[in-house]
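Example 3.2
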Amino acid sequence: MTTDFYEQYREGIRLFNEEDFFECHEVFEELWAESQGDDKKFLQGMIQAAVALFHFGNENFGGAKKLYHSAHQKLSILGEQFMGIALARFLVDFELCFQELLANTEAYPTTVAIKDELVPKIHAVEEGLIE
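Structure, written as tokens:
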């Protein structure tokens, strides 16, 4: 990772953890455009996770579910850790956050809401990645 890439990546993680999912998506999208291979797949999955959470918070449940599945599919094949984060832990927390929405079969759910205490955070396995 170049220094610029690394700093921008750290900024994307910071925005995600502050639940500024739209801005996080913007930052990660710039990095995604410059990436290749598994890094590109990972960043796309994280973009989709951020947008899924953005939609969930805005009660766009159809969009949230669709992006949840896309993100989970991309991220779940990348292992326990990836690009300095605890990816397996993130996926467990991400699934827990979406559990109620995923279990709901209503076309337009009225009893589902994102729970602040379940919104996943990104945890680092690499020193200095998250302040």
